[in-house]
């Protein structure tokens, strides 16, 4: 078996996949791709992923990109039946709903806030406000349940925890939302201290320092 994970340290979706790989004890060879030096646009990488994005997984020659499709594939292949991605139809549908909500709404709103600075544009403060509104909606959900999809930690919690901690690091603060804060502490305590530090907080803070400096100088 040969499993390679192409990733970038500061990329939030790459970090989500690396967390799941670590949580499940999957033996994957991690290969850093430098977006800053344009490695992702080189023919070698384009031949693997013509959409030139990280994370990209290659499983015995089968290439897959999009972090949420990668993590669901990894659980189904290496840890079928694990409560982190339930198999019961409706329980799985709820987890999938949160993953799609993150992709289509929450993370994309955050990306719309700071993404333009990587393309020569400026941050869009109204997107930061919209992001906070979305997290406030999440806060009301988390008033009723321990995790996003009920009583068990799932890949949706890990994915959305990475989104929200990335937001905090780039200066979009939602710490006044007490249920979200309590849930984040719960997710932190479910992961190992090294996972939280190395794959959640430290890289988010490095990205945050870069983004905040760019915004301040624009
Ligand atoms: N929706 C994708 C987003 C992937 C993505 O946009 N990755 C960025 C880094 S965070 C990237 O590779 N950008 C370079 C490019 O798309 O050319 C996912 O969740 O995997």
TrEMBL record:
GO biological process, alphabetically ordered: glutathione metabolic process
Transmembrane segments: none
Oligomer and partners: Homodimer.
Domain of life of the native organism: Eukaryota
Protein's name according to its UniProt entry: Uncharacterized protein
The organism's taxonomic lineage, starting at the top: Eukaryota, Metazoa, Ecdysozoa, Arthropoda, Chelicerata
GST N-terminal domain residues: 1-82
UniProt-recorded Gene Ontology molecular function terms: glutathione transferase activity
UniProt organism field: Tetranychus urticae
Domain GST C-terminal: 88-215
Alphabetical list of InterPro entries matching this protein: Glutathione-S-Trfase_C-like, Glutathione-S-Trfase_C_sf, Glutathione_S-Trfase, Glutathione_S-Trfase_N, GST_C, Thioredoxin-like_sf
